[in-house]
Specification:
Rossmann fold; about 450 residues; alpha+beta; 10-stranded mixed beta sheet; 2 domains
Length: about 450
């Protein structure tokens, strides 16, 4: 069985390298090149690190971690995927880690890898991000991860281990976080690979949350890809991944949006209808273990919000972590003084918020543009947060913090769901910050 697996992985590696050669023949060479970085920080498993820094980029470029398949390497994934070309177009930095253990597969199975700062490959990969932030002015608030096969499995592991580092991930032909766990010295989990590890959504969610106990901040958005005829990491794993990440985000497994972007593709979105939905799954009828195919990398980049030469103002839903519901203007009203509430996420204009460069949180547009506002310049606990015409006042300015809280600039208090409510219609107010999940918000 091991011989058969090595043969499959070798064939996949050869196919990806051939695809890379074809892509580079069709793409004009850029002045930027792949560069190896050494001594980048804690690296318990001796990973290698290569980076691609495009010549044209903003002062604080986003960072994409691109993780290779078994039998591959960072340079091979650079040559055989479209992420570097997209980096040239949109100005983000790509990090390509290389596994160095036997078979060049990443550790997604040991107890060390499956917990935050536990050791092994995830620690080295986190060090690479820190190095790019410190040495290439990378934007710590825009760090993303993607990968194929073993790299897709690592994508899920990293999203669980470091939800405060990675804002979103795209996994091409992977398995849920922890699914591949083994007992040493085994490194291959045949039951998981075969699609035979089936758990409830709650069980999968608990396993992902268990990678970083006590963490209550925002969770990364996740895009999942899988072919129905994958014979290496079989298709049932796709459904198990969806169970895991919808549960982590507190979402129903019933899609909020379904379409077919191409023939024989089925796309489902959970918790939203647009490209910034918290969870998105793309099932590919009749496709095997050969992802990503041409054009798919661009869809991952769009999901991350990196498909622009300059970072757009963050626009999307603002999700209450404790309730799993969205910041909402009751009845889609535009009437000044309408108090904000939480409601089931539906992607409506009354749930689509824009974070401006001046700290405002705006909803609607044109003559109906409104700002989230502390009522009547009040700062006391219980002050209603309402919509008003935008004036630029400090009672309409908000600080978006790395721990997931949103604080009023004037009051210093937190955006809070009254009474820690979780039901539709629970009101939003100001309250002294205490770190509770009713004061944690996920921006997407």
């Amino acid at each position: 069985m091991a011989t058969s697996r090595r043969a499959v992985l070798s064939c996949l590696a050869a196919f990806v390298l051939l695809l890379g050669a074809l892509v580079h023949q069709a793409t004009p060479a850029a002045a930027a090149s792949l560069v190896e970085v050494t001594n980048f920080g804690a690296n318990p498993s001796n990973l290698r690190m290569h980076i691609y820094v495009p010549d044209r980029r903003p002062a604080k470029p986003a960072i994409l971690m691109a993780v290779h398949y078994c039998g591959g390497s960072g340079p091979a994934f650079y040559g055989g995927s479209e992420f570097a070309r997209l980096a040239d177009q949109y100005g983000f930095i790509v990090i390509y880690p290389s596994a160095t253990r036997s078979g060049n597969c990443f550790d997604v199975y040991s107890s060390q890898a499956l917990r935050r700062d536990g050791g092994s490959d995830p620690v080295g990969i986190k060090s690479m991000v820190d190095w790019v932030v410190a040495n290439r002015s990378g934007d710590r608030d825009r760090v993303f991860v993607t990968g194929a096969s073993s790299g897709a499995m690592m994508t899920n592991v990293l999203l669980a281990d470091y939800p405060d580092v990675f804002k979103a991930g795209a996994a091409f032909s992977g398995v849920p976080d922890t699914c591949f766990a083994t007992t040493p010295p085994n490194t291959w989990n045949g039951a998981c690979a075969g699609g035979n590890v089936i758990k409830t959504a709650q069980q999968w969610g608990d396993l992902a949350r268990g990678a970083y106990p006590g963490y209550t901040g925002p969770r990364p958005r996740v895009q999942l890809w899988h072919g129905t005829t994958d014979d290496t990491l079989r298709y049932p794993n796709f459904g198990e991944e969806i169970k895991q990440w919808t549960n982590v985000h507190g979402l129903s497994q019933t899609p909020t949006y379904t379409d077919s972007p191409q023939a024989n593709w089925a796309r489902t979105r959970y918790g939203g209808t647009g490209t910034t939905a918290p969870v998105e799954g793309i099932s590919l009828q009749g496709v095997g273990h050969s992802l990503p195919m041409p054009g798919m990398a661009a869809m991952a980049i769009a999901f991350f919000g990196l498909n622009s030469d300059t970072p757009p103002p963050p626009t999307g839903s603002v999700r209450a972590v404790g309730a799993g519901r969205c910041l909402d203007v009751n009845g889609a009203s535009t009437t000044p003084g309408t108090q904000l509430q939480i409601w089931d996420c539906n992607g409506g204009s009354n749930q689509t918020w824009n974070r401006t460069s001046t700290g405002q949180l705006t909803v609607y547009s044109g003559g109906n543009l409104r700002c989230a506002t502390a009522l009547n310049n009040q700062t006391a606990n219980g002050t209603p947060v309402v919509i008003e015409q935008c004036t630029g006042g400090t009672n309409q300015q908000w600080q978006f913090n790395t721990n997931g809280s949103i604080t009023g600039v004037q009051s210093g208090s937190c955006l809070d769901v009254s009474g820690a409510g979780t039901a539709n219609g629970a009101k939003v107010q100001l309250w002294t910050c205490h770190g509770g999940t009713n004061q944690q918000w996920s921006l997407s």
